[in-house]
Amino acid sequence: MKLTDRQNVYVSPGARVADDAVIYPGVTIEGECVIGSGAVIRSGSIVEDSVIGARTEVTSSVLTGAKVGEDCTVGPFAYLRKGADIANGCRIGDFVEVKNARIGERTKVAHLTYVGDCEIGKECNIGCGAVFVNYDGKHKNRTVVGDRCFIGSNCNIIAPVSIKDGCYVAAGTTVTDDLDEGDFAIGRVKQVVKHGRARGRFC
Asked: pTM value?
């Protein structure tokens, strides 16, 4: 491996790091990690008992018991918890948390999203602020999302629920019922405008 600053990097004895992987200053690699060929781990990252595939780049993120495939980008400030299984070619962006979830090839979860207890297919786009709501107060429930689905920004996906291939969920929608292949789902409260009623109330 290529260490850009040996004095500011910790690599545990149980870790296996490819010779051409690049580890930047301020990185901690703990436990039984595997870092693939050409991977880049940038400053501020903590990797514990995790697998990072070839040519994947991790920036200022925490991985604990996670598996990330080849040619992925993770972070900055992503949190991949135990059971996170990310396939090849994925984008896991800033302030994304993934727990006990499988994400298919070339799927993008770009920012500010919680993905918990679910399976997401390949070539999906998960919008900003989407939440996979997995806990009902007593039990953790799972969600299944098919291939080539679009989940818009600020959506709530209430488990247990199934969203089949090719579905489109409009921004701001709360999904509580299963969607069949190719369905379009939109669920919002209708906007009501009362003209002039805000004058003098707030400024």
From this structure: 0.91
